[in-house]
Structures are given as structure tokens and as C-alpha cells.
UniProtKB/TrEMBL annotation:
<feature type="domain" description="AAR2 N-terminal">
    <location>
        <begin position="18"/>
        <end position="168"/>
    </location>
</feature>
<dbReference type="Pfam" id="PF20981">
    <property type="entry name" value="AAR2_1st"/>
</dbReference>
<dbReference type="InterPro" id="IPR033648">
    <property type="entry name" value="AAR2_C"/>
</dbReference>
<feature type="region of interest" description="Disordered">
    <location>
        <begin position="443"/>
        <end position="476"/>
    </location>
</feature>
<dbReference type="InterPro" id="IPR038516">
    <property type="entry name" value="AAR2_N_sf"/>
</dbReference>
<feature type="domain" description="AAR2 C-terminal">
    <location>
        <begin position="232"/>
        <end position="422"/>
    </location>
</feature>
<dbReference type="GO" id="GO:0000244">
    <property type="term" value="P:spliceosomal tri-snRNP complex assembly"/>
</dbReference>
<dbReference type="Pfam" id="PF05282">
    <property type="entry name" value="AAR2"/>
</dbReference>
<feature type="compositionally biased region" description="Acidic residues">
    <location>
        <begin position="443"/>
        <end position="456"/>
    </location>
</feature>
<dbReference type="InterPro" id="IPR033647">
    <property type="entry name" value="Aar2_N"/>
</dbReference>
<protein>
    <submittedName>
        <fullName>A1 cistron-splicing factor AAR2</fullName>
    </submittedName>
</protein>
<dbReference type="InterPro" id="IPR038514">
    <property type="entry name" value="AAR2_C_sf"/>
</dbReference>
<dbReference type="InterPro" id="IPR007946">
    <property type="entry name" value="AAR2"/>
</dbReference>
<comment type="similarity">
    <text>Belongs to the AAR2 family.</text>
</comment>
Length: 476
């Protein structure tokens, strides 16, 4: 065997398999690519990293006979499996088309465990090489060329810890979720109930709750009939001030979410803002690919939390004293947080179809524009402070310039795709309309069309090194 063949074989050995036989006519997707299957048993040649398998099983002949209409094929609930692949790993699942769920285990008996941490090891699926060869003709090759361009940008901050905390992992390291699963950020989910069943774009009325039997008490093997929720970070968007705040402090932190964001990161995310970005990305792929409406609620809440944290856009020296606060605000590392936020949102916007907001979620467009207007104002107000600091600290100046470039790139793309007019970051406040997010330009303000060419042209920057280390001047 020559060196090239040996290298190719070694690379193949590091790739994984996902085996899930589905009925003919089912929908199956991986990492944003979706197709209707014929003779299909799974996916091969999976590279290491996070993968998201989405599927809607076609109804059986018996189920089809009970569906309304003479030729209706029905719309099955979308199910999803999230998993971080390491080196050569194989995951085998079996779909029960009668119960319309994944079988609980290989024998279809014991309930799956769901753990909220990554400390415990995961059981490996042992599959013979002969078995894999027998399935080879019905295994689709991983669509590397189709998904590589967008998948990394959609999941760059999602870690296995993020997945375990929000979705929970079973004994094989898989996070199981479906379109009907509720969230801790739902109005009813926060009180312990799941969301009602919904279709993409319109809610259905009077649908039953979904309850899943799992083992939540791993040490005692206790079985719980409580509904399984997506456990995003918990916060009340309508009550964002510190306990006991009165007067000016109450007014400030009810409008400015900086204290709430800092408190959430410190108390629930181990003081790591990157995990907040990971939850935002996870919420996006769950609602965009799985059509999980509870994740849409979480996404809007997390998006607004970041955009409306005006004080965090200021240098620490320009912020109000935190001596009276029960916990301090984030450090100057919050500036890279905004740089990374703009980058990941650009990737999300580029992934969506150009008519997504107009045809599917116009209300989401209004929410995003209102939040982006607040962020634009906060960044514009902070510009003089960062400029003054940058004259003495070149590293800090570089971070601020990156924020500005990423805003300009986002503004250019959203103008082209959706007709959004986000404007440019200015040293004075820009006046935005209450619901439209449209800017009323000052006479001396530079228009986006003037930024298309030359050294001031906006561009999409490379995110290499974003995750960085803990230095303030490193990007997350």
C-alpha cells in the first residue's frame, strides 16, 4: 500500500456512521441539508464534530388509511438528534413507525437516560465491518461540499457542554429533541409545562401536551413522568433588575439588560460568555431546521438580551459604578462578545432564504430589527470612549475596529437580502422608528452605497481565533 492509499484509509477510519433506517418517502436532513429518502439506512463518512440529524418519518400504510383526504401524505412531527462525533464512531438508532418514536434501546424496553453533563462516559455501539458493508449501498455519503460553508458558522460556539446543558444527552452521547419539545423560557414552560403543538408559521389550538418518560435521577434510577424541557439559561425578560433595586437603579436596569446578562453568565454559565453565544446558535438551528417554536422563543429572548445590554458596550472606565450592585458587570471582554455576536448573526442571516421573513416569520423580523436598533445606538454612543482608549491601547482599538467592520458587513448583507436599513455606527445617536428599525439619516451620514468600494468597503472577516483565550483583547 503506497503512502497516499494509507493516508486515505487512515482518514476513512476516523470517519463515523449514523444508521437510521426510515420508511420510503420520509424526510431526512443533516446539518442543514434536507432530502426525501428512498432506500435509505443512514449516513457514512461523518467527519468529527457536531452533527444534527433531522427527520420526519413517512406514515405507514395503516396510518395513511386514517389520514384525511384521498391522497394526503400527512405531515409528521420533525425529530432531531444532535451529537458530537469524535474519531471513528457509529450510532445505530431504530425508528418505531407504530409508536412514532425512536425505540428506547436496542430491545425497545428500557427508557433512555438523559443527563445534563458530559462527565460520564458514553456507551459505544459495536458494529461489525461486514454489517456496514451490507448497508453500504443504502448509506448516503456526508454532503461535505454542501454543508461545510455554512455549518461551521452556525455552530462555532456550541460545545458538548452546551448540548448537555440545554438538550441533555443519552447514554450514547445523543441529544434527542423534536418540534414539540418545550423550553424553560416559554411562558408556560417556565411554570413546568410544555408548549402546545404548533406547525411552522401558525399555532394549532387545543393540542395535547407531550410527555416523555426518562430517567432524570441517574443515581437512584428514578423514572419521571414530568415533561422534558429544553433547559436554556433562565431569566425573565420583563424583570431584568437586581433584587432590591429602587429608583434610578430600577429604571436603568429595567431598560438596559447589562446587569441581567452579566448575572446569567456568571451564575449559570460558569462566567463564560461564549456559552451564551453557543445557546443562541443552538436555539437558531433548533427553530430553523427542526421547526421547534420553543427554541424560537429562546432565540428572541437571548438575541434581545445581548442587543439591549447597552452598558456592556461601554469601556469599564465609562460605565456607572457597580459598587451598589450585588454582582459586577462583565469586564472589557464584553467588546469581543459583540464582535462574535455580529459574526454569528451574519452567518445565520446568510443561511436563511431571502423570503424567509416575508413568507414565514414576519413578526421575528420586527423583533430582530428593534433589537438591532438598540444595539446600533449603544455602539454609536460608545464610539467616542473606545476611540479615546484606542489612541493609547492599539490592541483595544483593533477590537473596536473589528466590531465596526462586522456591523458594516451585516448591514450590507441584510440590505441586499431583506431590504433592511441598519445604518452605520456613528458617534451620535441615530433616530430609529419604533417598529420598523429604519434609520432617519443625518445629512452628513455615510450611506451604505458609498461603502461598497474602496478601503471602507464592508467585508466578512475570518473568525479564526475567535474562541481565543481569556485575554480581553481576544475575540470569543
Amino acid at each position: 500500500m503506497d503512502p497516499a492509499q494509507a493516508a486515505a484509509q487512515a482518514k476513512f477510519a476516523r470517519l463515523g456512521f449514523f444508521i437510521l433506517p426510515l420508511p420510503r418517502g420520509s424526510d431526512f436532513g443533516i446539518d442543514g441539508r434536507l432530502w426525501t429518502v428512498d432506500k435509505f439506512s443512514g449516513v457514512k463518512l461523518l467527519p468529527p464534530g457536531l452533527h444534527f440529524f433531522v427527520f420526519s418519518a413517512a406514515p405507514s400504510a395503516t396510518q395513511q388509511a386514517h389520514l384525511p383526504g384521498p391522497s394526503s401524505q400527512g405531515v409528521a412531527t420533525r425529530h432531531g438528534i444532535l451529537r458530537f462525533y469524535r474519531d471513528a464512531e457509529t450510532v445505530v438508532e431504530e425508528w418505531d413507525n407504530v409508536q412514532e418514536e425512536l425505540k428506547r434501546d436496542a430491545l425497545g424496553q428500557a427508557p433512555r437516560k438523559r443527563r445534563r453533563n458530559t462527565k460520564e462516559g458514553r456507551e459505544e455501539t459495536v458494529v461489525s465491518e461486514e454489517y456496514l458493508k451490507s448497508l453500504d449501498k443504502s448509506l448516503a455519503a456526508y454532503p461535505q461540499d454542501d454543508v461545510a460553508a455554512h455549518w461551521a458558522g452556525l455552530t462555532s460556539f456550541v460545545t458538548e457542554e452546551t448540548l448537555a446543558r440545554v438538550v441533555g444527552l443519552d447514554e450514547h452521547g445523543c441529544g434527542l429533541v423534536d418540534a414539540l419539545m418545550g423550553s424553560t423560557l416559554d411562558e408556560r414552560g417556565a411554570a413546568g409545562a410544555t408548549s402546545g403543538k404548533r406547525t411552522w408559521g401558525k399555532a394549532r389550538e387545543e393540542e395535547p401536551e407531550v410527555r416523555v418518560v426518562i430517567d432524570e435521577d441517574e443515581e437512584g434510577n428514578g423514572v419521571s413522568n414530568e415533561p422534558v424541557l429544553l433547559e436554556f439559561v433562565k431569566f425573565d425578560v420583563k424583570r431584568s433588575w437586581p433584587e432590591g433595586a429602587v429608583g434610578e437603579a430600577l429604571t436603568r436596569w429595567s431598560r438596559d439588560k447589562s446587569w441581567q446578562l452579566s448575572h446569567v453568565v456568571r451564575e449559570q454559565l460558569g462566567d463564560d460568555p461564549k456559552e451564551l453565544l453557543g445557546e443562541l446558535q443552538l436555539a437558531f438551528i433548533l427553530f430553523a431546521l427542526l421547526h421547534n417554536f420553543s427554541s424560537l422563543t429562546a432565540y428572541k429572548a437571548l438575541f434581545a438580551l445581548i442587543c439591549r445590554s447597552a452598558t456592556l458596550a461601554q469601556p469599564p472606565s465609562s460605565r456607572p459604578s457597580s459598587a451598589s450592585l450585588p454582582s459586577p458587570l462583565l469586564s472589557s471582554a464584553s467588546l469581543p462578545l459583540f464582535a462574535s455576536f455580529l459574526s454569528l448573526f451574519l452567518a445565520q442571516i446568510q443561511f436563511l432564504e431571502a423570503d424567509f421573513f416575508a413568507t414565514q416569520l414576519p413578526s421575528l423580523e420586527r423583533d430582530l430589527l428593534d433589537s438591532l436598533a438598540a444595539l446600533s445606538q449603544a455602539l454609536s454612543d460608545s464610539l467616542p470612549h473606545w476611540t479615546a482608549i484606542g489612541e493609547k491601547e492599539p490592541g483595544t482599538a483593533g477590537v473596536w475596529k473589528e466590531v465596526v467592520k462586522r456591523w458594516d458587513a451585516l448591514a450590507a448583507v441584510t440590505m441586499e437580502r431583506f431590504g433592511w436599513d441598519l445604518g452605520v455606527i456613528r458617534g451620535t445617536r441615530a433616530a430609529y422608528l419604533a417598529q420598523g428599525g429604519r434609520v432617519e439619516r443625518a445629512e452628513d451620514e455615510v450611506d451604505l452605497e458609498d461603502l461598497e468600494e474602496g478601503e471602507d468597503a464592508p467585508y466578512v472577516v475570518d473568525d479564526d481565533g475567535l474562541r481565543g483565550d481569556d485575554h480581553d483583547d481576544e475575540y470569543y
